[in-house]
């Protein structure tokens, strides 16, 4: 597949890294020659320095025979015009645009993106995706990472193993004997900075970060087994009243179970806008690092603080300050993955990675066919892939023990009809089943071959 990626920033680079690693023909376009050079030096991609919306630049990038264009520059307007040019001049079949402005995303204006108006096939909103991820972190406060799968019936949970965990030093195969009715599978373990798919004889040690796939009904029990306490979040303080903080506060207001939220925003005009939009949420104008303001927000009585300003270091410092003032749970928005290892020493409980969230959302649409969703884990180290099994797939009609999965791949769950089944060695994968697979990045091409997604791409 021939793909043009417009924008060589963090998101564009990660998408290029994924797609070029899967042997696609990728060209990266950016008006910053240094970013283009970084992409061509580190990835197996071609690069063009120039403005993505210019027809001659797209022509140079090979738009005449491209299968897809992904517009992920920093400008909404450039992304929109790029898709228009790609459609009108080059007839590129599939066009994906990242749009940040909420005005462009309002449902009443969705008619704008019809083929005879502004021909964008898929609109990705980073702020909305990140807000949803933040809400999931609040819903599972003891997990550092969480994502839903299989029609929302199951979740992938990232859990840090600490002293006192009941299953420390226990081989994974024994978990099935000890908790035979538990529908949960350890699909990935990060140990000493390395992520791997565990084997049945592997044990869990203190300090490990485990990725566990479990059905919704067993989330609380899974948390308890792995040494975590499930607590309802009733009071939340949000540091940052921009698009992400506003989206989170609005979602909390709409919930049937009342969650009391307070928003702290240092920019007066943004704070006033948030106060006008929000009906049940208190908005405080001031610095989220100000102890007296945090005290006014009753931070010591809050169940969680969510730090979602547009600055990583501010988010981390605000999270540390809130914890120091008595808040038991701190979640920070972190764009730079190199800062993530500092979270544990600083006592920050969980984080939201906008880049990973946006990359996952775009990959979901790139892997078109029967792939329902893709979640990028860590610094693009692995993926959780949810896909429907085709009748032509090599795995259809076979038991899991008989399928030659690569070493870095594990089945997390199988949706048969409307029921999630725990995958065991003798579980049969049938045509029409939906499977959730954990795969290390290097094994993704083989997973796609087993699912035969490529024949259904367009």
From TrEMBL:
Keywords: Ion transport, NAD, Potassium, Potassium transport, Transport. It comes from the Bacteria. It holds the Pfam family TrkA_C. GO terms for molecular function: potassium ion transmembrane transporter activity. Residues 144-228, 372-453 form the RCK C-terminal domain. InterPro entries: K_uptake_TrkA, NAD(P)-bd_dom_sf, RCK_C, RCK_C_sf, RCK_N, Trk_Ktr_HKT_K-transport. Residues 1-124, 233-352 form the RCK N-terminal domain. One of its GO terms (cellular component) is plasma membrane. PANTHER family: POTASSIUM CHANNEL PROTEIN 2-RELATED-RELATED, TRK SYSTEM POTASSIUM UPTAKE PROTEIN TRKA. This is Trk system potassium uptake protein TrkA. The lineage of its organism: Bacteria, Pseudomonadati, Pseudomonadota, Alphaproteobacteria, Rhodobacterales. The gene is trkA.
